[in-house]
Amino acid sequence: MNGLLEVEDLYVRFTTRQGEVKALNGLTFSLQEESVLCLVGESGAGKSTAGLTTMRLLPRNGSVVSGRIYFEGMDLLSLDSRSLRGIRGKDIAMVPQEPKASLNPLHTIGAQVAELLMAHSRLPKKGAMAMAAEMLGELGLPDPWEMLKRYPFQLSGGMCQRVMIAMALALRPKLLIADEPTSNLDVTLQAEILRRLKRFCKEFRASMVLITHDMGIVAEMADDVAVMYAGTVVESGDVRTVFDRPMHPYMSGLIQSIPRLDRPEQRFQAIAGDPPDMLNLPEECPFLPRCNRAINRCRIDPRPSLRDLEPAHQVACYNARSYEPVDGRGLGPGRMPR
Ligand SMILES: Nc1ncnc2c1ncn2[C@@H]1O[C@H](COP(=O)(O)OP(=O)(O)OP(=O)(O)O)[C@@H](O)[C@H]1O
Ligand SMILES: [Mg+2]
After folding, report:
1. pTM for this model (two decimals)
2. Which ligand 1 atom is the nearest neighbour of the CA of 52?
3. What's the mean pLDDT in 231-254?
4. Which residue range(s) make up the domain with 255?
5. Which amino acid residue places its CA nearest to atom 30 of ligand 1?
6. Could you tell me if residue 195 is inside a domain?
7. Which residue of 6, 76, 121, 213 has the lowest C-beta tally within 10 Å?
8. Which residues line ligand 1 (CB under 6 A)?
9. Using CA atoms, how far apart are residues 4 and 326, in angstroms rounded to an integer?
């Protein structure tokens, strides 16, 4: 494997009063140059933790237990803070899930965007402000000059999100980690911003880890997809292959639920049963209590690890096999939801 970003067997935990939250449990995925990888999974699966660990921005109670993260062959987890500062923003940038919390409440938007631009270029303040206004305008923010004068609390969640996207793209990073970047936007704007992100990647030959729980966005945006469950990837590969032949029972369940004309609001099916308790993860497959395909081995052996089932397709399941639609509503082979 020699992708732009390689995450290998990553374990991350959070210390809380209730105990250790095992947020990432052997997370492994790979992002190729000039491509988009979607990280999907339900709430609590560890998607944001994966992004934050890559940026080395885990909150104080979070720690990496083991594992490696390589960016262009460089081990991000062993970099000192000075080298990190050189990379963050410039080579790798993140659009955080909570945009409002990530902006400084005491400074205007203009001051924050301009500061970022000036720190990495020789632009004078006036030039930086002009560039900031242009970038905000490109993301469809009305009256960008006016916007620059405002403080974060004067902006809606969707506006903050677009400011964060502008800041993330500002230095033309090679790798963009976008954590639910359009969750606060209406559908039309969402499509427009996603197109903008894709155009950015094409134009600057950048790659993106796009975190989402919207399978429609995955179908639109991804080259590759990695499906997370309980802090690990249970299925990954080329998006077409995975959508055509999902082999993990969890992913099969998700795929069955996509564009159902009778239930358009349901973008990410709530599969029966509850997600596992991350404070008390079992040794065996964490999907077992919700699985309708479990075999004896699933109850006896430790959780299965990812293995190649066909080219560009990895699955972590002892009973991996292709889903066959039983009621005619599933997506037959060769059909992608669009
Ligand atoms: N700072 C923290 N302290 C304690 N536990 C945390 C912290 N941050 C995340 N967790 C826990 O770690 C697990 C993974 O959380 P994470 O935020 O990465 O999930 P996610 O997939 O991004 O979910 P969502 O779709 O809701 O954003 C969850 O069980 C969560 O409660
Ligand atoms: Mg998250």
Report:
1. 0.91
2. 18
3. 93
4. 1-91+211-338
5. 44
6. no
7. 121
8. 14, 16, 21, 23, 41, 43-49, 59, 61-62, 97, 213, 278
9. 40
Q: Which residue has the tokens 């993106």?
A: 208
Strand 36-40 to strand 224-229: parallel, antiparallel, or no bridges (unpaired)? parallel
Q: Please write the tens of the pLDDT for every residue from 179-200.
A: 999 988 888 889 999 999 999 9
Ligand nearest to the CA of 178: 2
In angstroms, the CA 2 to CA 25 distance is 22
Alpha helices in 214-329 (DSSP H): 215-221, 239-244, 249-256, 296-300
CA dist., res. 237 & res. 202, Å (int): 21
* Most informative mutation of 18, 42, 49 for ligand 1 (most atoms within 8 A of CB): 49
Neighbours of ion ligand 2 (CB under 5 A): 47-48, 97
Closest C-alpha to ligand 1, atom 24: 43
d(CA 279, CA 277): 5
CA 48 to centroid of ligand 2, rounded, Å: 4
Query: What digits encode the pLDDT tens for the residues 302-334?
Result: 999 999 999 999 999 999 987 554 444 444 443
**CATH code of the domain in which 227 resides:** 3.40.50.300
Nearest to 174 by CA among 7, 48, 32: 32
Mean pLDDT of 61-67: 98
At 5-29, the pLDDT tens digits run 999 999 999 999 999 999 999 999 9
Return the beta strands (E) in 41-121 as ranges.
Answer: 62-71, 74-75, 92-95
For the chain, the domain total comes to 1
